[in-house]
Structures are given as C-alpha cells and as structure tokens.
Model the fold of this input.
Amino acid sequence: MSLNGTAVRPCWEQLPMLLRDGLTARLGPITSAQPQSGGFTPGLAARIQLVDGDRVFVKGIDSGHALADRYRAEAEVVRALPAEAPAPRLRWDAEIAGWSVLAFDDAAGRHADLAPGSRDIPLVAEMIASLAAVLTPCPVSHVPHAAAELAGLVHGWKELAAEPPADLDAWALRNLDSLTESESTWLTAADGKTLLHGDINASNLLVADTTVLLVDWGQPASGAAWIDVADLIPHLILAGHTPAAAEQAITGALSATGVHPDVVTSYAIAFAGYWARTSRQPAPPGVPNLRSYQARAAAAALQWVAHRTHWT
Ligand SMILES: Nc1ncnc2c1ncn2[C@@H]1O[C@H](COP(=O)(O)OP(=O)(O)OP(=O)(O)O)[C@@H](O)[C@H]1O
Ligand SMILES: [Mg+2]
Done:
C-alpha cells in the first residue's frame, strides 16, 4: 500500500506566522522542516532540523479543531509510557498561538513495509507481541475502556442492513444477516488491563534497521491485548497478503494473548463493517483521501471475514 499523498498537511510556510514564531522561540532557529506523509489528519506533522544540529518531530493542530483532543490525549499517554515502550520520547507539549503542539525525539525511520516478503514483518510482529508485557497494567488512568469506546465505533453492518447501498459487495449482501448478527459479540472479550495503541497501521510504524517504533498514540484505550495484535491483520491483507498469510505472520503474537478464535472472527466482521460504513460517509473537510482508503480497507477486511467464516 502506498501511503504517500494520504494526508494533506501544511508545510512550514503555510503555518500562521505567530505559530512559526512561537515554534522558533521554543525550538531555536530552524534549518528545514520536512512535512510527513502517512495518516489522514490535516494537522502539522514535520521532521525539523535545527541550526544547532538537533532534530525534532513536531505535530500540531488548531486547538479548536475537532481532533485537537486527540493531540492532548496523545501527550498524556506518551508522557506516561514506560521507558522500554517502543515509542519516541515526548519532549514537550504546549499551546502555541492557538495550536496544540507536541514535540518528540525525531525517529529516523521509514514507514513499515507490510507487503508479502518484506523483512519488516517479523520485526513488526515481534514489537506488537512485546506490547502487552510493557503496557500492562495500563500506565495511564484517564483512558477510556476499550469495550465502551469501541462499541460506538467499530461496527457497521446493522446500519448498512437497514438500507443496503446499491454498490455493496455481493458477498456482503448475501451474508448481511449473519454479518449483522455477529458484529458485536467480540465486545464481551474487549476489556482488559493493557494500554492499547488503537491505531496500528503501517503509517504509525517507523522502521530503522531492526528497530520498530510505534507513533501516533492519540486513540488510546485500556483493554484486551489481542486487539492491537489483531489490528495488524487487515493491514497486512491491504498490503497484498492473502488472509491466511496475514494471520500466519502474527500467529504467535495472537495466540499468546489467549484470544478465542470466534472473538477474532467477530472482530474481523466488525472491522469490515466499520470500514464499509465509514467509507460511504461524506469526506471530512480537508481530508480528500480517507474515504477511498476506507473502501480499500473494507475490501481487505471482507476477504479476512470470508476466510474465517467460510460463508459462501
Ligand atoms: N517521532 C517521529 N519522528 C519522525 N517521524 C515521525 C515521528 N512521529 C511521526 N512521524 C511521521 O509523521 C507521520 C505523521 O505522524 P502521526 O501519525 O503522529 O500524525 P497524525 O497527524 O496524528 O497522523 P494520523 O493522520 O495518522 O492520525 C507518521 O506517519 C510518521 O511518518
Ligand atoms: Mg498516524
């Protein structure tokens, strides 16, 4: 999957002058600011080279933006991460010229390549498998519980069944009743004591040599460790794996969580429903590529569901 050109983010020159001045006052003189691709948030995300030779990653968004709360949540979570968590360190967060800004150690990596045969895959699988030990018990007290948080988000078939769209996938249309019936049973297994990242995808996995770091902690929850592990599967399919190969790639990590296979099947159904539902919503302002990505993700997740259910 190509991640380039997904988010439409401002470059340094497009930022309000007061913000640029405030950042320069905080960071010191800047040599260059490289806007980053990946993700869909229309905020600032740039790797900044400073005149003194230091490098820093800065992300920020207008404090009045609907997503600003995620930035605040991310600062709180990253500050609480144990030192051994595979994540860049937060240097500071601040309100600058009406923007919520976070500054991190710069991670000199590239997005993980999740295509079949990629050498990143065992490294990513190993890192994801290690998360539960580092993040249990959840080191942050204010994060929402996964079952409550995800119940209102990760679903879609009930809504689609109420008024099936004309372009709904033929297999999904045939199995709409079963999909609707099964899309929420996983919620009974979602609670747990692990801090979950909640947005595992290639653009949030930075690989340098054999090290994989997880960035973008703005959607945290406390819950069952299997959720972050299972989230990788549709992204492996999206990157070209067959569902069987995608599951094989993280089979050790997933079985270590002790999750029941029926729970994973229900979760796959819910995720496919989430993407099938949200891909049909109007595009949010300033985010032109999100809906087409979600449509591709829905197709990948449906392949995963068909593989697990054997429904015809
Ligand atoms: N500490 C870091 N060092 C270097 N690059 C980083 C760092 N953190 C993030 N990036 C790069 O910037 C991109 C955007 O960062 P991040 O995902 O945190 O921002 P976001 O705007 O919240 O994104 P999203 O739209 O995915 O929610 C990442 O995909 C990654 O390529
Ligand atoms: Mg991201």
